[in-house]
């Protein structure tokens, strides 16, 4: 049985052991970096497309500062997730204070943050951060001074519920990815353990 069967079962020409496990983990880290770059690029793109909500030069400068800061902090999302989420929360608060309304950028950041809570944080952090995202998103919609959102009931409540649904989908996607990743890592560790003992 030994290394030959494990190697055959994994489809590799070499035994599955510490070396293979290390290679897989390196691949996971590289994918995380790619995902962080993609999240930062998405924030920058959405921010650029959504600048039409800005109505003055002062707001424009602040808006682009928020876009740049969000994109920069997302580059380290996988390495320091709690710090990243805390900074994003502060930036979204500044966004609300300066622009007085939600935006496509804010919605995108909420979705990325919700996904990150489930893929990067352990309980109870993941639930507390996710709860803050729900509260922040609803507050930004319900407390906005922009008339175009309509009255609080039923317009703004309906918008808030729709945003909560999108945040929930992002969080569920993150939870599924986290579960699959954990299963894969456990399977590889078990294969490495069996390989070293037979």
Describe this structure in words.
The protein is mainly alpha-helical and about 200 residues long. About 80% of the residues lie in helices and about 0% in strands. It is built from seven helices and no strands. The longest helix has about 45 residues, at about 150-195. The protein is elongated, with a radius of gyration of 21 Å.
Q: What is the structure about, briefly put?
A:
This protein has helices at 2-10, 18-49, 57-74, 81-99, 104-120, 125-142, 152-197. It has 198 residues and is mainly alpha-helical.
Structural class by SSE content: mainly alpha
Helical residues, percent: over 70%
Total beta strand runs = 0
Q: Could you name the ranges where pLDDT drops below 50 across 5 or more consecutive residues?
A: 1-17
Gyration radius over CA: 21 Å
Order of helices and strands: HHHHHHH
What is the overall silhouette?
A: elongated
Largest sheet: none
Count of helical regions: 7
- Our estimate of the beta-strand percent is under 5%
Mean pLDDT: 85
Distance between the termini: 8 Å
């Amino acid at each position: 049985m030994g290394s030959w069967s494990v190697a055959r079962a994994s489809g590799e020409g070499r035994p599955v052991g510490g070396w293979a496990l290390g290679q897989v983990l390196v691949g996971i880290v590289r994918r995380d970096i790619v995902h962080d770059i993609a999240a930062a690029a998405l924030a920058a793109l959405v921010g650029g497309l959504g600048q039409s909500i800005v109505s003055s030069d002062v707001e424009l400068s602040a808006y682009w500062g928020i876009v740049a800061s969000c994109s920069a902090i997302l580059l380290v999302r996988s390495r320091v997730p709690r710090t990243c989420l805390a900074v994003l929360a502060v930036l979204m608060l500044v966004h609300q204070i300066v622009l007085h309304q939600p935006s496509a950028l804010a919605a995108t950041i909420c979705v990325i943050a919700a996904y990150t809570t489930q893929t990067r944080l352990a309980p109870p952090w993941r639930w507390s951060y996710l709860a803050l995202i729900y509260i922040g998103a609803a507050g930004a919609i319900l407390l906005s001074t922009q008339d175009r959102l309509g009255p609080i009931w039923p317009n703004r409540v309906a918008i808030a519920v729709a945003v909560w649904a999108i945040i929930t989908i992002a969080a569920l996607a993150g939870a599924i990815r986290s579960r699959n990743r954990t299963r894969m890592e456990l399977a590889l560790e078990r294969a490495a353990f069996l390989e070293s003992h037979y």
